[in-house]
Amino acid sequence: MSEQQTLTYENVLELIQENSREFSRLLKEQAAEFDRRMLETERMIKEISEQILVTKQIKKNREEDHVRERSDCDAEYTIIQQKSERRRQVLDRKMERAKKNIREFIGFTGPFIDNMLDEGIIEQFQTLGYKVTHHVRNEHSLDCIEIGIRGEFDLTLVDTGVIILIKVEEIVETGDVGSHIEKITEYCRHLATVGFKKRHTHLLPETRFFGAVAGEVVTDEAMKFAHENGLYTIVQSGEAVEIVPVPEGFKAREW
Fold first, then answer.
1. Phi, psi of 156 (to 5 degrees)
2. pLDDT by residue (tens digit) across 17-35?
3. DSSP structure class, residue 6
4. Which CA distances in Å does 31 have to 6, 20, 25?
């Protein structure tokens, strides 16, 4: 029979102390491992955060580059547009000068009168009740030079009892209407002074005179002024040349 060891108080205390030391060591090791892992986790979080910041900065830089590139493209496009517009304006001015030079070379009045006659201006006045049957161009024979009236009547529509005196301008303005009224008035005054029948034996003494202005463009002010003073207006509408419909209450002025 083996000999049993007797546990004493001192033995139990020593055992407890030994276990306590072992437990403390384990706790320290676990705490150290925990601290190491926490430091590693913090390091990884910092690296990830830095990577995120770098990624954001790269994205921001790309967006800024894109904005700058787009801005540069917009600016370049604007410059191209401005240059194109300036070139177009220069070309328009050259075209206008060329058109003006051509018109000055071939004359505006003649071709416009041709167009008026081709488009039946006589028939249009006949529709309004004027029994005109033929025309005279650039009428000097009505004593305009003798009585000191500058210029001439560009187109005269004639019948034995009616004469319509027409002034032609490329652009008819209010002053053109006024000067035409003055010219007709001065001419009719001259006829009354010298004696109508004596001066124009081919016309009836009761011949009535009317006025009209014609142009490629008649300004609104000129048209209103003409109608208020009893003159007809004739304008180009596309390829046609037409008498403008008169406003309500219009009464043709008779000299």
1. -125, 125
2. 787 777 777 778 877 887 7
3. P
4. 38, 16, 10
> Residues 205, 251: contact at Cβ < 8 Å?
no
Block residue for tokens 């529709």: 127
SS3 215: strand
Burial-class residue 132 by CB neighbours within 10 Å (0-12, 13-18, 19+). buried
**Residue 211 bridge partners (DSSP):** 165
Under the banding of pLDDT at 50, 70 and 90, the label for residue 100 is: low
Tokens 């540069």: give the residue: 72
The string of pLDDT tens digits covering residues 188-205 is 887 777 655 444 445 566
For residue 172, name the pLDDT band (cuts at 50, 70, 90).
very high
Rounded CA-CA distance 157/170 in Å is 20
CA 253 vs. chain centroid, Å, equals 39
Residue type (1 letter), 64: E
254: left (phi over 0), alpha (psi -120 to 50) or beta: beta
The first and second tokens of residue 57, run together, are 């900065």
Reported as a single tens digit per residue, the pLDDT across 38-52 is: 888 888 888 888 888
Distances (CA, A) of 185 to 102, 119, 141, 151, 169: 34, 29, 17, 14, 19
CATH architecture, domain defined by 110-243: 3-Layer(aba) Sandwich (3.40)
Place of tokens 């060891």: 5
Neighbours of 128 (CB within 10 A): 13
Q: What pLDDT, on a 0 to 100 scale, did the predictor assign at position 96?
A: 59
